[in-house]
Amino acid sequence: MKKRKLRDIEVSAVGMGCMAFSHGYGKIPSEEYSIEAIQNAYRHGCTFFDTAEVYSPNLSGIGHNELIVGKALENVRENVVIATKLMLHSVGFGRKAYDEVRRHLEGSLDRLRTDYVDIYFV
Questions:
Q1: Which residues are identified as catalytic?
Q2: DSSP 111
C-alpha cells in the first residue's frame, strides 16, 4: 500500500476510521467482528487507525471504541499509527485544563493498551 506523510509520521495512504464499530452507521457489529476487521486492515497494509474516547453506543459512555482498537492492535502497536480524540467541556486555561487533558489522555492510553498515541485531537 502507498504511504503518506503527516508531517514526520508515515502512514498508509488509506487509514481506518473505527467509529462505526461503536456507533454512527446502523447496528454495531460484535467486538469479535470489529477486532477481526481492524486486524485484517492491518494485514492488508493499513497502518493508520482513528478512534476517540467518545465513540460509544449512542455516545452514552467513554472508551468503547478505544477498547476495541487497543485489543485489536496491541500485538502490532510498534507498526501502526493511532490517532484518538478527547472531548473537553469548558475548563478554561491553565493548570485545570492541563489536569483535565492529562486525565483524559491517561484513560485513553489505558484503553488503547499503549504508553503513547501518535496523534491526539481536541
A1: 55
A2: H
The boundaries of the domain holding residue 21 are: 3-121
What's 108's domain CATH number? 3.20.20.100
Q: Which cell numbers in the block locate residue 3?
A: 504511504
Judge if pTM exceeds 0.85.
yes
How many degrees, rounded to 5, is the angle at CA 54 between CA 48 and CA 55? 60
Per DSSP, helices labelled H in the chain are 31-43, 64-73, 95-112
In degrees rounded to 5, what are phi and psi of residue 92? 80, -150
Q: Which cell goes with 115?
A: 504508553
Q: What is the pLDDT of residues 29-83, one digit of tens each?
A: 999 999 999 999 999 999 999 999 999 987 777 899 999 999 999 999 999 999 9
